[in-house]
C-alpha cells in the first residue's frame, strides 16, 4: 500500500510537511526555551475543562486558551512528521556512511594498485599521475597511527604507570611514505 506523504510513517521516503510551513520557526539557538515535562497533557485538559465555567473567575483569557490549543495542534503536527523524518535521517546517515566506507576502501585499493604497477619497469611515471590519491591514502594512515599512539598514551596514564613515553605497536602497512622511485617500499605484488 502506498504511503500518504502528508501522514508519513517511520521508514517512508516521501514526506510532505508543507502544512508546517505556515508556522515553521527557524532559530539559531533553542537555549532558554522551556520544554514540555510530565503532566502537560493533564494540565491542558484541566484548562480546557475549567475554562467555560471558571475561566472568567480565575482571570484566564479565552484568547490564551485558544493560543494553547493552537500551539498544541502545531506540536501534534510537528510530531507527526518528526517520527518519519528522524527515521529517514537515520537511514540517510547510515546509507551515506556505508557509501563513504566503500568509496574509501576502493580509493585505497586504487592507490595500492598504482603503487604496485608503478614498480614495473617503464611504469615509474604512472605513480606521479595518482599523487593526490596516494597522498590521501597516506594521510589517513598517518592519522590512524597518531590516534593509536594517543590512545596508547591515555591507556598507560589510566593504568597509573604515569609514563608518557608509551607508544603503539608498529605494523607494516602498504601506506608507507613513497621512496625516491615513487614506490611505498612494500614488496607485495599481484
Describe the structure.
- The chain has 190 residues and is mostly helical.
- It has a domain at 41-51 and 58-162.
- It has four helices and no strands.
- Helix 1 (40-58) runs antiparallel to helix 2 (62-118).
- The protein is elongated.
- The protein starts with 39 loop residues before the first helix and ends in a 32-residue tail after the last helix.
- The model is unreliable at 171-190 (pLDDT under 50).
- Termini separation (Å)? 51 Å
The secondary structure category is mainly alpha
- Beta-strand content: under 5%
* Mass-distribution shape: elongated
Tell how many strands the DSSP assignment holds: 0
Order of helices and strands: HHHH
Question: What is the tally of helical segments?
Answer: 4
Q: In this structure, how is the largest beta sheet organized?
A: none
State the helicity in percent bands: 55-70%
Evaluate the radius of gyration. Answer: 30 Å
Runs in which pLDDT lies below 50 for 5 or more consecutive residues are 171-190
The average pLDDT value, as a whole number, equals 82
Amino acid at each position: 500500500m502506498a504511503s500518504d506523504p502528508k501522514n508519513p510513517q517511520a521508514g517512508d521516503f516521501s514526506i510532505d510537511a508543507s502544512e508546517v510551513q505556515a508556522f515553521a520557526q527557524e532559530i539559531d539557538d533553542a537555549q532558554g526555551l522551556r520544554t514540555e515535562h510530565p503532566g502537560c497533557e493533564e494540565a491542558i485538559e484541566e484548562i480546557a475543562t475549567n475554562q467555560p465555567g471558571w475561566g472568567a473567575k480565575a482571570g484566564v483569557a479565552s484568547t490564551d486558551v485558544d493560543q494553547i490549543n493552537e500551539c498544541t495542534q502545531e506540536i501534534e503536527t510537528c510530531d507527526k512528521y518528526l517520527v518519519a523524518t528522524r527515521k529517514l535521517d537515520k537511514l540517510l546517515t547510515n546509507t551515506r556512511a556505508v557509501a563513504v566506507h566503500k568509496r574509501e576502501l576502493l580509493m585505497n585499493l586504487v592507490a595500492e594498485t598504482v603503487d604496485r604497477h608503478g614498480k614495473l619497469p617503464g611504469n615509474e611515471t604512472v605513480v606521479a599521475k595518482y599523487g593526490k590519491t596516494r597522498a590521501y591514502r597516506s594521510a589517513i594512515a598517518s592519522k590512524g597511527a597518531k590516534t593509536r599512539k594517543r590512545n596508547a598514551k591515555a591507556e598507560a596514564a589510566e593504568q597509573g604507570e604515569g609514563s608518557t613515553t608509551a607508544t603503539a605497536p608498529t605494523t607494516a602497512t602498504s601506506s608507507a611514505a613513497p621512496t625516491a622511485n615513487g614506490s611505498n617500499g612494500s614488496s607485495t605484488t599481484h
